[in-house]
Structure formats: structure tokens, C-alpha cells
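Could you help me review a protein record that somebody else here produced? Do not assume that whoever made the record got everything right. The record follows directly below this note.
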Amino acid sequence: MPQILESILDAVGNTPLVRLHRVAAGIRTPVVAKVESLNPGGSVKDRIGLAMIEAAEQAGLLKSGGTIVEPTSGNTGHGLAIAAAIKGYRMVFVMPDKMSAEKIALLRAYGADVVVCPTAVPRESPESYYSVAERLAREIPGGYQPNQYFNPANPEAHYRTTGPEIWEQTEGQITHFVSGMGTGGTITGAGRYLKERKPSLQIVGADPQGSIYSAGDKFIPKIYKVEGIGEDFYPTTMDMSLVDRMEIVTDKECFQVARRVTREDGILVGGSAGAAVHAALKVGREIDDPDALVVVLIPDTGRNYLSKLYNDEWMRTNGFLEQFPQHAVGDVFRSATRDSMPRFIAVEAGDSVRSAIDTMQQYGISQLPVIEGEDGAQRLVGSIQERTLLDRVYRDPDLVASAVGAAMDPPFPTIQRLAEIDEAFDLLIGGAPAVVVMDGQQPTGMVTKLDLLEFVASHTVRRHRHPVQS
């Protein structure tokens, strides 16, 4: 029997779960992505576009020949535009001026009128994109504003589709659900469904720095560049009581993790996905449980951001790529590795503390990763560090005869060989004594603060060396 859909709207939903291997390398907790970018319009908002239109039709609020007016960061507009194009409605979308040119052009491609408003004004300002949308909906004959921020059909669509899909795809094994928080429809609708079936499930919201959700009573409006998440007011579509934990994510973290997901796991994602994955990786690392299952929702495709987060010049201009964007971590690793040293020096958890000390003395190093497993399947389980080991041996000299596993510290953070050097700077400046360089899931080397200093010094000398005058 031919498998033919009646319209593109029938292709919305049933998006896959995909294991994140490379960005989650070294994390024992499985982290999988619900890839909503594979919806026809490229985002999770496809799910609510038709739902809100049909709810308005049933309530008599939207009639044949009417005009849909919506304030949107772009993706909701796209979801509405698909449904409106098929149903024959006129469209007017109002967007803040921080949105990418691709998003504006995309909506116009469906025949929509797009009105752009300033971002740096309060919500109640007559110039804000919320106020302009409300005014246009009143003034345009037959105008109707679905208003995703206050429309119960928004979370209801996720309760009916997104939540059940995740539950069935994981066979109920999901333990943590991670999502960005914008209108709140996704995290509220899907989260409520999942919590009803497993009350112990933890819901984690990723919120950009400058948003009201994580700031609460201390909220001070701040402009951030990541699109589609965070708010400066509380929509009624957001049920904060469902959120067990919030992770605040900076613009830089959003964009750099998004680029990593694209380059390392091959899923082209937007900045809000970077925020959610950043939070999911942090949660997975803290849980450290192979029997847990973290599901992170990827809300949209990176095609809408080619002129921004995937544009090195835009990233550099905004301070998200800094001093050495042309270099990868692998360059530092190769530069730091001496001919007399193996590529990767580590100690087994079952080895003695004495053997670990001997290894550090042999190679003149002050820290070692602790591993378990055979070559090709090694797993990082801890670290031995000169400073903390000295304190422990001083207090208990017999410790030198014990297994390394009894004296080790937590594992060093990991970074992929092809990651940009600025990511290594962030980890080391943030307090990590060293980072383990990974090639996929296999550890291949170490980079320390001294390695980075030597690399920067050598490249700075080369950059400023003047040519000899003849």
C-alpha cells in the first residue's frame, strides 16, 4: 500500500532519539537527544502551530480569510506559517531585531509579512514586539493572535505528542528530561506527561543568563543573544512547579556547545540546543550512573543561524571565539608532547599508589588520569594529583601501598581533539587542573595550564616577530 501523507502537517512529530557519543565522551550516564529539528519546519514549534490554529477555529476565534498575528522568535512563526499556508490564512509575524536574517527570510518565503521591533525595550513598551503584535491583532480585520505565551493549546500539544513519544521511545527508562525554557510549552507539556508516569523523574530547565526564570525575585533584565529561550516575564504556559532544577547557561556556552554537537555528533543545531545540551552534559556528569538515562530536547536546526553562531567572524566580534580560533586542542597536545613521552600516560585504578608516584617521577609530571578497561575501551574513573596526594600520604603513610582507587580524586574534564582551543581555556581557567584530550570516546592525551601557557607564548612570539630587513 502506498505510504503517502495527506499533507506535510502529517509529518510533524515522531522524531528520533539519538545517542550523543562524542560530546558526551567520558560521561558514563547515557545522554540522548530528542531531535526536533527533523520536523518538517525544522523545529519543535511545528507541534504547536497546527494545534493553536485548530483550537482557535473550534472556538470561533479564527475564521476563513482571517489573519494570524503572532510575536515570535521565528520558529513558532514557521510552524504557524506551514499550517496557515495549507489552510489559506494571511500571516503577520512580529519579531525582535536580534533574530537572524535567515529566520526573517524564511517566514517571508511562506508569504508572511514580518514586522521587526527593537529588543532592548521593556515588554510593556508600545515598541516591544509583544505590544506591536497585540495592536496589529486588534487593528487588522479578522486578526487573531494565537499568543503562544498564554495559549493552553501550546503545552497541551506537547502533553499529547512529545511526552508520550519520549516515554515510548525510552520504554519508560528515562530518569532526567532536559529542555530549554521559553514559552514553557515544551517543558511543561512533555514534563507533566512524563512526571505522571514516573514521579521520580527529574526535569531540568536550561535558562540563559539574563532570563527571569532562574533569576526569580533578583531579576534584572539583561540582553542575551541566544534565541528562542528565556523570558522577561512569566507566561501562563510555563508551570514552574514541574521544574526540579535550573541550569543557567551563558551565550558563549550555548554557542560553543551547539558548534560541538554539530561538528562532533553531526547534528546541526541552534544555540538553544547548545544551552540544553550543556545542561544535560553537566547533569549526566554529576549523576555518573550508567543505569540512568538523560533525554535532552534539541528544539531546532542550525540552518537558521548560519550567519550567526556558525559564522566565525560574528562569533569573534561578539567575544565567543577569542584569541586562537584557528587552533584545535589537538594542536596544543601535539605541541606539548615530548618525543621521550608516550602519547597518553595514565594509571590503572587497581595499581598501587607507589606505582603512580613512580610514574609521575619518571615523566616529570604532577598529575595522572586514572583509567579502567583494556586498550581501545578505556574509561576515565578518577585522577591522581600531586597536591592532594601529598596531603593524604602525609596523614596516612601506609596509603602508598593501597590501590590508586582508594586515593584518587574525581576525573579530569574531557575535551575533544578537534574542539577549539578556547574551550580548553574556559575549562582550565574555570578551575580544572588539567583536561583529558579525547578522540571520540578514547582518551589520547592531556593538556595542562602550563601546556597552554607554552603554546600561547610560542605562537605570540611568532605572531609578533618582525621580518629581517635586507
Notes: Residues 429 and 449 are 8 Å apart (CA to CA). The longest strand covers residues 90-96. Residues 329-460 form a domain with the CBS-domain fold (CATH 3.10.580.10).
